[in-house]
């Protein structure tokens, strides 16, 4: 049912794919510290070199790219796999960056300490219909410690940053329901998909529940870890799944719709594009590939796509 075609290979831990209107895909190469544009024929060009660890990407209301920069990773190589491995000695700090697609200019929009917030390893982001964006901070791992982090809301003009949800266990992927009334966040090591009721821009229902605020929507068995996510037009949540690798498709009610297997244990991101929003692009980060397939259902068109 799923016929994967390799669009590009030889990438250095690709993540954060953004389907562009011209058929290209812009993504990050975390291990190379750069943002890369992949053309339909597989050719690549460097958009910008922010350094550190560029991670999640999204197009903003001004047509620029907004980038979660995690500050960098150590890496280990196991056969053909490139594996992130903790906080590096040259860790450059967590930050949100704005990138001009035409010039490659990189501007730091928010950094650690701004508005009293702690940013350790920003990971993924999604814009809402009001011009602001939600983002996760996955934190950094060290030999015997791991950061406790949260989920943030920020204005695109650099004028406001707020930690809305704290604590959150190693949050990674983030997305919004088609009506914008539900915020989804995927936790990596706990392998939970959580849902939060959105009350207003930058505000969710944080009524305490067992395990913290929000509803634990879905958690699979087996050797699985959640990474980034994308939402289908019908409201299903597609979560990139590491370990027993593939895409876990979860209904808004918390039921597994299907599991789409891949061949890379570091299957990290999925995004949708094309005229009918059924072109699915998936980053197979461990082996450095961007692959494409036709999805049976259209993806949700993002706020500024």
Number of strands: 27
Number of domains: 1
**What is the CATH homologous superfamily assignment?**
TolB, C-terminal domain
- Structural classification: mainly beta
- Uncertain runs are none
CATH fold naming: Neuraminidase
CATH architecture: 6 Propeller
Question: Which CATH class is shown?
Answer: Mainly Beta
* Approximate shape: globular
Helical run tally:
0
- Average of per-residue pLDDT values: 97
- Specify Rg, calculated over alpha carbons: 17 Å
Q: In percent, how much strand structure appears in the residues? A: over 45%
What does the main sheet amount to? 5 strands, antiparallel
Order of helices and strands: EEEEEEEEEEEEEEEEEEEEEEEEEEE
Pfam families: SGL (PF08450)
InterPro entries: 6-blade_b-propeller_TolB-like (IPR011042), SGL (IPR013658), SMP-30/CGR1_Lactonase (IPR051262)
Protein name: Gluconolaconase
Domain SMP-30/Gluconolactonase/LRE-like region: 13-284
Short description:
Residues 13-284 form the SMP-30/Gluconolactonase/LRE-like region domain. Pfam families: SGL. The model has no long low-confidence stretch (mean pLDDT 97).
Structural overview:
The protein has a single domain (5-294), classed as Neuraminidase. Helix content is 0%, strand content 50%. It has no helices and 27 strands. It comes from Sphingomonas lenta.
Short descriptors:
27 strands, four-stranded antiparallel sheet, Neuraminidase, SMP-30/CGR1_Lactonase, SGL, 305 residues, five-stranded antiparallel sheet, mainly beta, globular, 0% helix
